[in-house]
Amino acid sequence: MEQTASVNTDPGHRSVTNGRCSQWRNWTGFWFLGLCNNFAYVVMLSAAHDILKKQESENGTAPTPPTVAVDFQGRNSSNSSRYDCNPVSTAAVLLADILPTLVIKLFAPFVIHNLPYGVRVLFCVIVAAASFLLVSLSTAVWISILGVIFASISAGLGELSFLSLTVFFTRDVLGGWGSGTGGAGVAGAFLYSGFTQIGLSPQITLLIMLVVPFAMLISYFILLVPPPSFPQWRSRTMEYTAVGSEERQRLVDDSDQEQQEKSTPADDRSTGPLTFTEKLHVSRGLLKFVFPLGLVYFAEYFINQGLMELLYFPNFFLSHAEQYRWYQTLYQVGVFVSRSSLCCVKIRKVWALSLLQVVNAVLLLFAVRYQFLPSALLVFVIVLYEGLLGGAAYVNTFYFISKETEDRQREFAMAAASVGDSLGIALAGVAAFPIHRYFCSL
């Protein structure tokens, strides 16, 4: 008997299949957007340091006095301090890398709605590519510094834009974004170290990494499946006007009272963009999210930039540089794991994470002062735990902002709240200077 293969032509089945495919593509797209957005920011500090050091040795214009000879990890080779530290804190470079991002996050949310999302992404890609080119091809110190600033601008504008973009998709894309930003730390550090370890120069390594900004273009314009009404090349002000007119006309034409009641909230949400006064009101309401997030990042970057290079164990089998490198690597691994955990666990009380991170900072501060920790292995565990706390605070903060903010306010709220981590990092950089100076003077 002849048999024929059955083909499912049910429109409902096709709709469900397409929906799942779109959902998976969007999650993956935001994962790559998070990775690409933070990638330049992650690699730029170490890459700029290598190239600046090479320029100084070649040009001979900035010889390092014998009393401040330093290696890559901030080790002072002729310092009499018992901490074997660099007289200039690594927080100095951190501030140069974070301040442009902080300025953007403070002011851009109030005006960024006038710039279409497509234009924002193109700008971020161009600036990120320019950062790699400037640092790799620079012939002067100030050009390399300008490249680091460009990387900071791209990362800051990209973060607040992509967080705002999540409101047009299902909430699970926040998990993809968070995981991708965590992955940027691991991938950036691993790839840069790997390429230079096999013999490639920092300049060639950065030129190879130009593929990353173009991967952002592919992720955004090809991989994502935005809703049909998404304002790709229109500003949000124009979109509010157009949607508001369509909704009002639909309500006039629709005589069904039940349908009219269902449509009224959408009409209220589309009456126009938030005014400046409304944005200030929303910003005040975000303090309950922003302050705990900022405190988490203040504590962890105070550890990373103020204390980590001072946690040196001379009798350990790893050198000072290798110990520092593993501290940073394990921290990034912790961040990646916790930023990928949103699908498994959600933590509403970010305050608890903040307090635990402060405990970490206080513990390590006393450990530096009194040197009571027996081995670097214990520090490895602590910094891994530190990364877990920081990553969990980040993804849960934005998840609950997305969940608890009104529809009309959500896009602005996601962008405005992104200032929390950058503000905490900047304050940590400032606080690390006197602490570092004090310990290095002992």
From TrEMBL:
GO terms for cellular component: early endosome; late endosome; lysosomal membrane; membrane raft; neuron projection; trans-Golgi network
Keyword Nucleotide-binding: no
Keywords: Endosome, Glycoprotein, Lipoprotein, Lysosome, Membrane, Methylation, Phosphoprotein, Prenylation, Transmembrane, Transmembrane helix, Transport
Membrane topology of the entry: Multi-pass membrane protein
Membrane-crossing segments per the record: 30-48, 91-111, 117-135, 142-168, 174-192, 204-225, 350-370, 376-400, 412-435
Identification of the protein by name: Battenin
Region spans: Disordered: 245-272
Coiled coil region boundaries: none
Species classification: Eukaryota, Metazoa, Chordata, Craniata, Vertebrata
Organism for this UniProt entry: Seriola lalandi dorsalis
Family: Belongs to the battenin family.
Subcellular localization(s) per the UniProt record: Late endosome; Lysosome membrane
A Gene Ontology biological process term: establishment of localization in cell
Residue spans of biased composition, Basic and acidic residues class: 245-270
Predominant location category: other
SUPFAM superfamilies: MFS general substrate transporter
